[in-house]
What does this fold into?
Amino acid sequence: MERRFRSLALATALLGATALTGPVTPAMAETLVIAAPATPEGFDGDALRPGTQNAVTQVYEGLVRYGRTEKDGRPYLDPAVIEPHLAESWTVSDDGLTWTFKLKKGIKSPYGNELTADDVVWSWNKSFDQKRTGNFIAKVSNVESVSKVSDDEVAFHLSAPSSIFLSALTLYVPGIYDSTEVKKHATTDDPWALEWLATNTAGFGPYQLSQLRPDEMAVFTANPNYFRDPPYFDRVIYREVPSAASRATLLLSGQVQWIDRPAVQQVIDLQSDSRVKVEGSPGRAMMSARMNPKYAPFDNPKVREAVNYAIDREELIASVLRGTGDVAKSVVPPIVDGYDPSFFKFSYDPEKAKALLAEAGYPDGFEVELLYSDLWWWLEPYAIQLAGQLADVGITAKPTRITGSDMRSRGAPGVQDMPFFVFEDGPIVLDPVYTFYLLAHSQGVANRMGYSNPELDALIDEARQTLDRDKRMELMKEAQKVWMEDAPWVVTAYPGIFEAMAPNISGWTPYPDDHERWYDLRAN
It folds into this structure.
């Protein structure tokens, strides 16, 4: 009771309410307080900015969802099972080019508007027009257009059969918006109401944004019309606490019940404290450094191989991740079907690295900036220690910090002007073909450094249209071989994912986007 009272008192103070007196009732206790590095900078899933993904995953849901399973008493997603969600059923044409979904009746947004085919069509057209994240999801899934069949039926028209279409529909993007509400805020100059969506939400998921104080907090309340059982927490306060140490202190003192993505040293320290519960999951996003082949010396494959041989991955995992990660041996993470580490060849071999540099015309090494940002806690120590290891083979890499926003914008398609930088990327669809298209295809939005190989593109494109699983796996095996031979990344590690929470919180289910779903959580 004492822990709940402190959390509720903090929540009340944050909202400017009158201080509480008297006992805490169960209804009053249904507030979840989260300490995060910053408040979300936007709420449009097609225009990802820092914190956006954390929020929109609570507001927008898909027509289908992954199944659920349990392992060691913990809930997990089952990517082999696709279940109905906002849709109740679907059919597919004999040629695999038209998928028709029947929507569930009675699904309403917080504004009281019922989900219809018009909402789905409007939402996908928004993504098509923005030509960003949602448009990429459509492209990789071969979706050409979406049309209304009836008020409760919507058809997706594909340019070719797609092996990943259903899995892609599990995502929060393209978000399915309450278009009736959003269109009230549209203008001639802003037909999709993007300005309004920067500070508001309008979805059919379990939560809605109810208050935003930039640089202070965002408050979310439960959708009173949500079509499933009501969330346990009817209010979530997403509090900005820039200091990681302060976030941990607030959790230990019971003033918050969840902290966002704790650093590994915090995880180690908190695991031994009974006032906190720490849970973990294998990671699907790779710690890596990217080498842009558009810029010398990284246009030379021998240089890229040399950098890979210069790296002691086990040491980096031990020193940066404190042992909480696995050596990366493929662009496909181990938790995704089709992972094949057999083509990994980069043992720690400084002498071989020096020999390759000499063969490439750099016997004395070279100098380069190594860019990093504040998007993840480990980026700075990784960049610094990576630079130290590279110095041992004559490469002077100068760690240089830029903002997370600059990092994302400079790695965007059409820009990609960073010669050498560290980043974390991984698939949010648990599928090897999606993984390759996202990260390694010349049109992949998370390629980020202009890598292009027509042979690899052809393998990925063929696999996108191949429904035969065995054939897809053969193509993905060959793709992993080609990618590893090209060595465009300094493949390093898959960091484990950890969440720290109050000991009475349960229900955390790992998602491929690494964001908890507040709807899953309970307080025991």
Remarks:
- Residues 469-486 form the longest helix (18 residues).
- The chain is about 30% helix and 25% strand.
